[in-house]
Amino acid sequence: MQGRRIVLGVSGGVAAYKSAYLARRLLEQGADVRVVMTKSAQQFVGAQTFAAITKQAVLVDLFGGISPHTELGQWAELIVVAPATAHSLAKIAYGISGDALASTVLASEAPLLLAPAMHTEMWMHPGTVHTIDQLRRAGHTLVGPESGELAGGDIGYGRMAEPEDIAFVASCLLSDQSLIGKRVVVTAGGTREAIDPVRYIGNRSSGKMGHAIAQAAARLGAGVTLVTTSSLVTPAVIERVQVESALEMADATWRASAGADCVILAAAVADFRPVAVADVKMRRADGAPQIKLTETPNVLAGVVSMEPKPFVVGFAAQTGSLEEAKRKALSYGTDLLVANDVSAPERGFGTDTNEVTLMWPDGTEDDWGFSTKSEIADRLMALVASRLPAIGGGGVVAN
Ligand SMILES: Cc1cc2nc3c(=O)[nH]c(=O)nc-3n(C[C@H](O)[C@H](O)[C@H](O)COP(=O)(O)O)c2cc1C
Question: Ligand 1 in contact with 296 (CB < 6 A)?
């Protein structure tokens, strides 16, 4: 999203308060954000809030400058309307300008992402149903609404999608859809091998690298299944399978990988697990236990032996030298091995940054240097997309 020009349109619903956070999320991802608000929206959040967050003047009045709506509409690479009220959606659907927001949308050729928010009755009303149908047929993208708590404490359908999900779909619309029609499986996080009902043998993997890869793949249009042990949140377009142990990780990964185009194994899976799990919590009074371990299934070996074999990317976390990773790259049957030294500062487990070396089965290597996990994920998925045979088909961008 670095440097991409996004207009955020805010109309008059209670969810307007969440749009301030959405503006911040878009800015954090590097976008250049300008805001246009309806008069009603200013009943809910002041224009000053958005001006302070974006450090840009907010367009609220059509008749302030020379032609502010055409200027803003032509500037935009993407317009996001969040919240999109029933009123503003209808105006956009039927080409009724008349205020700064609708006029900007009508004066733009940029793709349009709409995040409807309203009470269930308003959403179900035949007028709104027609409006939404019209907007979809015009090729605009909708994200949400979802069910949950609505204004006034009611529970039902019509709640605006979460800002993270809106920001994610926005990033999809600004990306080339080079993985459309592809199925990608990603594993993430460190497994936990139970000793008793409260204790486990684990590792320090946070799942950040795998989650970033899953998002990067979905952004390029792939259908993504993420098998994870992590509690990090994922955008709604990613199918998430939550697991804990190596056995669960193996089972879920192998199931999801059947027929997949690409499998990326970024999880830190335990090599050994306790042979027996105590039924009740072990007591100090019983003395130090002798815990007998047994090997866990080899998730990677299972995936590389699949027929047809997907494009397999393995991750190798090493401490110190990458020699062991080199051996794995030549012998494990991966199409690509991504090695990193997790003992180096700001690299590996738990950090937002990493340094990876790509190792190909023919022995060639490519050091990508120090970078954020999100940048590595985007670069890796662009590389994978260039290696997979092109096919057509539908993507995952919400509509
Ligand atoms: C407290 C309150 C909450 C409202 N929430 C919504 C809402 O979530 N969605 C919606 O479509 N309209 C909502 N409305 C009604 C809109 O504010 C009203 O239709 C307004 O004309 C929308 O104008 P705009 O689309 O130009 O911003 C709400 C009104 C009030 C008073």
Answer: no
Task: Examine the residue annotation and report whether 354 is marked as an active-site residue of this protein.
Answer: no
Q: Among 36, 38, 40, 61, which is best to mutate for testing ligand 1, by the most ligand atoms less than 8 A from CB?
A: 40
Rounded Cα gap, residues 15 and 394, in angstroms: 31
Q: Which atom of ligand 1 is nearest to the CA of 101?
A: 26
User: Cα–Cα distance between 391 and 381 in angstroms, integer?
Assistant: 16
How far, in Å, CA of 210 to CA of 391, rounded? Answer: 25
According to DSSP, the β-strands at 311-318 and 336-341 are parallel
- What is the tens place of the pLDDT at every residue in 315-348? 998 777 788 888 888 989 999 999 987 777 677 6
**Using one digit for the tens of pLDDT, what is the confidence trace for 151-184?**
777 788 999 999 999 999 999 999 988 999 999 9
Residue 237 and residue 352: Cα distance in Å, rounded? 23
pTM: 0.81
Ligand 1 pocket, 38 CB below 6 A? Answer: yes
Topology given in CATH for the domain delimited by 5-173: Rossmann fold (3.40.50)
The CATH code that applies to domain 183-387 is 3.40.50.10300
100 touches ligand 1 (CB under 6 Å): no
- CA dist 159 to 40, 79, 112, 147, 152, Å? 18, 20, 19, 6, 12
Domain borders along the chain are: 5-173, 183-387
User: What does the buried/exposed string (b/e) look like for 201-214 if buried means 16 or more CB atoms within 10 Å of the residue's CB?
Assistant: bebebbbbbbbbbb
